[in-house]
Amino acid sequence: MSNGDALTFDIEKNSKPATASERETLLQNPGFGRIFTDHMVTIRYSQDRGWHGAKIEARKALALDPATVVLHYAQEIFEGMKAYHLPDGGAALFRPSANAQRFHNSAERLAMPPLPERLFVESVRELVKIDREWIPTAEGASLYLRPFMIGSESALGTRPATDYLFCVIASPVASYFKGGASAVTLWVSENYTRAAPGGTGAAKCGGNYAASLSALAEGQREGCDQVVFLDAVEKRWIEELGGMNIFFVFDDGSLQTPPLTGTILPGITRDSLIKLGRDMGLTVREEPYSIEQWQADAQSGRLREAFACGTAAVVTPIGKVKGRKHNFTIGDGNAGATTLRLKAALTDIQFGRAPDKNEWLDRLF
């Protein structure tokens, strides 16, 4: 049985790719996750053969039997990462090995066969190379990459699937939030929790995001952009947003973010910002922070800034927080100096405008 270490990719180029003119038109206003490149990666797994059939082929619809395991038991995991256009015309991925490791951990939590990390990184690299013309060059835009894996066996019965399909698709993207750098407003969810101890909070699986959607819809009805979740036990400790981690900036210049206790996704952007903040000489704490303390600190002025972060959101300032029991503004309601400084430090590395002292960039060409 193959563990995938020796796999190479068969390449079947799209016979009808987008024309240069069509691609240029689409890249003028890509939005987020609305348009896709010409190709995709597929790799299959079965109990008897292991990982096999690695391909780069024309992007197409998946054919799934109505009894496919993922449709009934939600065996699914995914990643989010980006390829960035560099000043010299090249391109690079940002910390792809960290995505590969997290994908491995998510697979183990969902009782799925881990894809070899080398194969994960190589699949993303090869897709970007073949669809390199789709990497946007506009300020702040990038090529978003979505590796994912599903249980593809056709069977009913609550058990792990025997067959799996791994894919990578790519989408040129601009800013995740409308308005770009504008501060967002959060809704404090009191009726819903995102994850509980012993659950799948630390895994990047679709079920976590599906569970957040009712809370997000509630927040949007209240005029908010995103939702912030509290812990499932005491319902007072801040955990994360629907798809982003969160940081707080205090009047002494220090930063704080909730600790990774198994209910919070270990964000790669989060980890990078902790490192960058400490490199700047800032104190960065990973400690619990309650919603009551957040409101009190915002009202007293002790808390000066707050921001969300993630691959899609990058670094997004938080201006206001609303809820059934909460209504407060952070600072002057706009992006703060530390937030903007950290965002610039991160994106300057990602887009090749600053030295990559931590060797986070994986140059492709």
UniProtKB/TrEMBL annotation:
GO MF annotations in UniProt: L-isoleucine-2-oxoglutarate transaminase activity; L-leucine-2-oxoglutarate transaminase activity; L-valine-2-oxoglutarate transaminase activity
Pathway assigned in UniProt: Amino-acid biosynthesis; L-isoleucine biosynthesis; L-isoleucine from 2-oxobutanoate: step 4/4; Amino-acid biosynthesis; L-leucine biosynthesis; L-leucine from 3-methyl-2-oxobutanoate: step 4/4; Amino-acid biosynthesis; L-valine biosynthesis; L-valine from pyruvate: step 4/4
N6-(pyridoxal phosphate)lysine modification, residue list: 204
Any one GO biological process: L-leucine biosynthetic process
Primary enzyme class: transferase
InterPro entries: Aminotrans_IV, Aminotrans_IV_CS, Aminotransferase-like, B_amino_transII, BCAT-like_C, BCAT-like_N, BCAT_family
Reported cofactor(s): pyridoxal 5'-phosphate
EC number of the protein: 2.6.1.42
Similarity annotation: Belongs to the class-IV pyridoxal-phosphate-dependent aminotransferase family.
Protein name in UniProt: Branched-chain-amino-acid aminotransferase
Source organism per UniProt: Rhizobium miluonense
